[in-house]
Structures are given as structure tokens and as C-alpha cells.
Amino acid sequence: MELHQLHYFLAIVDSGTFTAAAEAVHVSQSGVSTQVRKLERELGVELLERSSRRVRLTAEGERLVPYARAAVAAVDEVRAAALDLRGLVSGTLRVGAVTGLAWPPLFDALAGMHAEHPGIDIRLQEGMSRELIERVREGSLDLAVAAWTDAAPDDLRASTVVDETLAVLVAPRHPWASRSRIHPAELTRVDLISLPPGTGARDALDAVIAREGTRVLPRWEVATPAYIEVLAARGLGVGVLNIVNARQWTTVKAVPIASPAARSALGVIWRPAPTHAARALLDRLVG
User: Fold this and answer.
1) pTM of the model as a whole
2) Residue 194: what pLDDT?
3) Which domain holds residue 176?
4) CB 3.0–4.6 Å: which of 27, 182, 218, 276 could bond 80 by disulfide?
5) Does some domain include residue 100?
6) Total domains, the chain
7) What are the residues whose beta carbons fall under 8 Å from the beta carbon of 121, sequence distance 6 or more?
């Protein structure tokens, strides 16, 4: 088994096609295909289903992905440790952030890393919190800035940045604009504007509604907090978002939701044994 074969296999898993994987590892598509076939023969199992336009993992391949990632990461750590002994930091760093994140410390830390450690291959990817946390757990991301409800995942390390109540966002002339709080039951009778499932604010909203013994599908499901503000300001519905986000806007009124479940935390998530590069970024973010 060769290390580059594992690299090619993981490139296919992460990109979804042989073509994209070949571009990522700077090898011909036929070369990638040949090496992965050799890996399958040596392991005695088929790793990938090639019958569709988009390559998919077999059940055996899915079970072996974490081990392949661990093997590649272990070799990278040996290289990184050797460089550390020479006073350098190198390697790869995959960072995730919730879509539309506006948290300057992350970008300041990334800029500092890029300037101080140019040998590190840094990549930033956006996504929904639930997906990002799972990707940290399975190893395709080194760390992520994500949101969660209740408590942070107990199998990962976390540092909370903000932990605030959920609020409704309404236009200034909306009947709720003069209220001091909104009861959860009232949310079941209005057109809601929310982020998609898997985001911290949406998971918290669903938890609040579930306590009322019902389930509500928002009329407006949008990708970023900015869209919630735009729609709510025009009276198209009642937005639901972490109150921290709402404080920056003057076009809407933020009113807290009166429920202990109406909370959403945002923080940094990473695995218990971070890589050297991840530790260097964490030192800048959480100390």
C-alpha cells in the first residue's frame, strides 16, 4: 500500500469525481484510477461504485475512510513535527465556518497564519453547523466555527464565542415590535423566516416549537442571516435568529423569545488531538 494511493482515494471521496480528484492532486485521471484500482486489489475490497456519473463510496469504502484519513494525517504529523523541530510550521489546515459568518477574529487569525506560516496550505469552506461539526468529527475538517444548541458535542473540544437567546425579528410597524418578549406558542401562528435545518438558530427554533407539541415549517427558508433581515424588514414574515446577529440592524426590531430552549451558541470546534497546524490556529483563536 502506497501513501499516494490513500491520497488519491480521499481526493475522490472529497471531490466526488475522478476528474476533480485528478485536478486536486495534479495527476492524470487515468493515473488516479489506476492507483485506486491497485489499492482495491491489495485490500481485497471494492471502495467505490463507478456506475453513476458521480462516484459513490461502497459500504466497505465508507468504513475505511476514517482509517485512510488517520493514516494520511499521521504521516503529515511526522513531517510537521520534524519541521517544528527546525522552528517551522507546515502541513495542511482545513477550516470550516458557518455560511455568512461575520466574526473578525477568525479572519484575523487566518491572515496571521498565512503571513507567519506560508508553508501551510490553508483552505476555508462554508457550510451549515451540523454538517461542519460532523466533518470535524470524521476528519475532513481540522476545526470549524459552528453553532449548537444545548451543549457542545461531548466527543469534541469546543470553545464558546457567544451564547445568546433567540429573538424574533419584525418590521418596526409590526404589532410585536413594541413587545418585551414573545411566547413560543405565538410562533406557530405566523409566517416564519428561518435559516435551513442544521444551523444553530434553526435547530434552536425547532426545539422551541417542539416544546409546544407541534412542528412548523417556515414559509421563508433562507441561506444567510442577511436574508432574514431583508425579508423581515419588508413585513414578509417574522424572522428568528440569535439576538447577537440582530443587534447590528436598524431596519428591524429584535424581541427575545421567552423559552429556555431559545438559545444558540457559536464557538470553535476541534478534535481532541489537533494537528500542529490546527494547534497553531487554535492558539490564535482560543489561546
Assistant:
1) 0.65
2) 94
3) 161-264
4) 276
5) no
6) 2
7) 91, 92, 93
